[in-house]
Amino acid sequence: MTLMLAFACPASAQQASAWIPEDSVYAGDRFSLVVELGHDGAGESLFPHELLPDSLISDAGMRLPLGDFLVLSVRSRGERVLADNAVLDSVVYETTTFAIDSARVDAIPVGLVVRNDTTLVLAEGVELRVASLLTEADPQLRDITELAQFPRSWWPWIVSVLLGLIASWLIWRHYRSRRDDVADNIPSTPPPPPVEVALERLAELEAMDLRSIPDIKAWYVELTSILRTYFAERADVHALEATTGELIEELTRLRAGRPVPPEWIAALHDVLQEADLVKFADIRPVVDKTRLLLRSSRETIEHTERAYRQAEEEARRRAIEEAARKAVDPEEGTPTPHDQN
């Protein structure tokens, strides 16, 4: 700015002026600074911020010092045509000051470009009163006061505790899910065969003293439950839901697919029929006959299981022989074109 003032030359065809709408401001307040340039319209006005190169203007915004003033930004720029085709160009700056008592700028340079020549014109300086922030009771600035003491807030602690509880719960859920996954991957022990369960339950009945049983009906209910459960699982029939007649009829009808010997189907029928008489007809059975029914039940289960195992062994033997025959003659079993049609 000093260099521009040094090389400024007066020009009678141009007239520059500057003024401030406010009479006084407080330090740090923002106010307007108006700069005007009147000319004959043959040139282009250059105001102070346009006379400086871009490298001297901060990237964060304009910071143009003019005396005690600091130009922050350009609020507006205008042009007005006067009489005799004269032109009045103007710019309004947003300005502030941190001076004490008064702020002043001695001269404000404004340029006018006519073709390739630039003429500098100096606007007369302006002065602004800066009101004091001190009151009559405070003749001078005071030192910074101590920090105010506020009651301690418990909210941060409450939020921290809640966040800690949530984090603990999430960690617990994570490890529990991993533990459950590991438990799911552990192979479970297969259930014992139906014949083992049935014979074990029969052994418990055989160990009882039939003469001292207070409710013989419950004993017969357990006996029929053992037989029905075994045949339901081994022969794949509806033994638990069916009546005695329906169960015997289903075993007889499907005996070709389920190798239950017919003599043991008859023995099963005798045991279930006798048990029905005790359970539903209130007949008091003879102890010796009850023992015979118990022994017949065991023999029925054992012989039925032996028949099923023989049938399963025979099926495995035939499967092995079939596989060996196909291994010797791979084309055996391949359908012929006639078979495909």
Q: Overall mean pLDDT score?
A: 82
The H-and-E topology, N to C, reads as HEEEEHEEEEEHHHHHHH
What is the helix content? Answer: 40-55%
Number of helices: 9
Q: Would you tell me the structural class of the helices and strands?
A: alpha+beta
**Beta content:** 15-25%
Supply Rg: 57 Å
How are the strands of the biggest sheet laid out side by side? 1-3-7-6-5
- Largest sheet descriptor: 5 strands, antiparallel
The termini sit apart by 107 Å
How many domain units?
2
Residue ranges: pLDDT <50 for 5 or more in a row?
1-12
> Which overall shape is indicated by the principal axes computed on the Cα atoms?
rod-shaped
Q: Count of DSSP E strands?
A: 9
Report on this model:
This protein is an alpha+beta fold and 341 residues long. The protein is 43% helix and 22% strand. The chain has two domains: 2-131, Immunoglobulin-like, CATH 2.60.40; 194-328. It has helices at 2-6, 48-51, 155-185, 194-206, 216-234, 244-253, 262-280, 287-328, 337-340, and strands at 15-19, 24-26, 30-39, 44-46, 64-66, 69-81, 87-97, 102-114, 117-131. Strand 6 and strand 7 form a beta hairpin. The longest helix has 42 residues, at 287-328. The two termini are 107 Å apart. Residues 1-12 have low confidence and may be disordered.
